[in-house]
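Hi F.,

I've been meaning to write this up properly since the lab meeting, where we talked about keeping a consistent format for the predictions we share between groups. The idea is simple: the sequence comes first, exactly as it goes in, then the structure tokens exactly as they come out, then a line or two of notes. No screenshots and no reformatting. I'm using this chain as the first example so we have something concrete to point to.
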Amino acid sequence: MPATTDPLKDQPTSGGDAQPPVALRMTGVSKRFGAVRALRDVTVEFRAGEVTALMGENGAGKSTLLKVLVGALPVDEGTVELDGREVTFADPTASRAAGVRVVAQEPEIIPHVSVAENIFVGALPARGRLFRKAELVAKAAELILRSGFGQVLHPETLGSRLTPAQRQLVEILRALTDQPRVIAFDEPTSSLADGEVELLFTLIRRLRAQGIAVIYVSHRLKEVFALGDRIAVLRDGAHVGTRPVIGPSERGASGTSIITEAELIRMMVGRDLSSLYHDELARPAPGDVVLEVSGLSSADVRDISFKVRAGEIVGLAGLIGAGRSELVRALIGAEPMTAGTVTFQGQQRRFHSPRDAVRAGIGLAPEERKAEALFLQRSVRENTAAAIYDRIRKARVINRKKERATVAQFLDRLRVRTPGMEYPVANLSGGNQQKVVLARWLARNPALLILDEPTRGVDVGAKSEIYAIIHELAATGIAILMVSSELPEVLGLADRIIVMQNGRITGELPRAEATEEGVLALAMADDLSSLVVGLQTETSGATS
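Output, unedited:
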């Protein structure tokens, strides 16, 4: 068993092509929830000193497998072995003591205590009954620096003041407070900017070099191929295979990929996705202008002007912090406008709240669907009908027959996979939750639909279905304004791409002329111009 004296300290690794030892093996693991078989005879292994990507569509069983691994769920059948010894974890505390960690996708942060206390929650240094704050802050500061997060985290910042990205980094550090043998990352980059993602990748590579078995769950294929040594795929609760990512040569320029993206997708969904973006779906030419924005400014954006026509998909692209979501919030009245005009369906409007925008005919699928769009403790029916109760209510009495008929119509139209409309929406996969949000607004028949990161946290199969839905909606004449951080998504869906940086528009590209390089150049226009000015200054100084 490899030594793990410090999971963040670089150590030499052994050479050669010998396979590293198995750190964790799950054999014949099955789990039922009533009639639903969440896991079916899963046998899979994770090796020390390797990154194994765990892939599969939403609902494939990945989250259930991780919960079984840490003892949050008991297995119905099967065994778990850690370093060759069979183990049974009564709860996550027991698995943690054994060196098994899971970094959750949605961190649980205590708002009224510091970063240091959040990192070491449950293991605070104390002498007798006295809490030793200075020692805690020093330990947290050391861990933050060794992990490479010193530029983005401070040990004494309150949990309530952390950004989503910082919250995720705290969750990661929590898993590193002692010496893990196995560590699983569940969608760790969903809220991280590019620079923070690279910090995380560096950290994961160091953990791998220490002989720690890393399990990496992500829907982002680029990340999986950049980090993974092997890819284990689940489909419908069963393990359909584990494939190496690179050949026997060491990772780097000489390492060649053995499995292709197309093959991986086939393993995940059981079919080819020949046109992920459904380019073959014909749509009529865009119609009249539905939304016209002129000179819009707010606290976060300035002098924004653009148009969206009926049946047109307009993409808002840019790097994290460019101001795209802030623009959307100003449009719908969630943040006050300080200048400019918004003309919607031929009338100049200024919405004072999102409710005003909804009543006018605008639908919004926000980025944080669980926090801002869904009532997680309510049923699929209640979530789908939430935007139409004012239309199916008379004298404060809801017409339940009309409600059920409308909900059934849109659940069927959007192919929402649910055991029934009374099923809790919290239990649906991410892709089906997003479809419920879309069904809600379609039931209201909006003239404009705003989609903010419409496929965040959604697997590749569900993405393909959501892309088809977006195409179909545009074909019916709905104007669509889409914010997305995934360049291939913007390039594949949008008829026009508006690029933002630092709260302003830096350019616009028609689909036929748009490339990743072109969009990125506009997204970094200020940085590039500053670089050019700096080089010119240096050249001028050298000449003089």
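Notes:
The chain has four domains: 22-109+162-269, 110-161, 275-361+446-544, 373-445.
Residues 222 and 521 are 20 Å apart (CA to CA).

If this format works for you, I'll send the rest the same way.

G.
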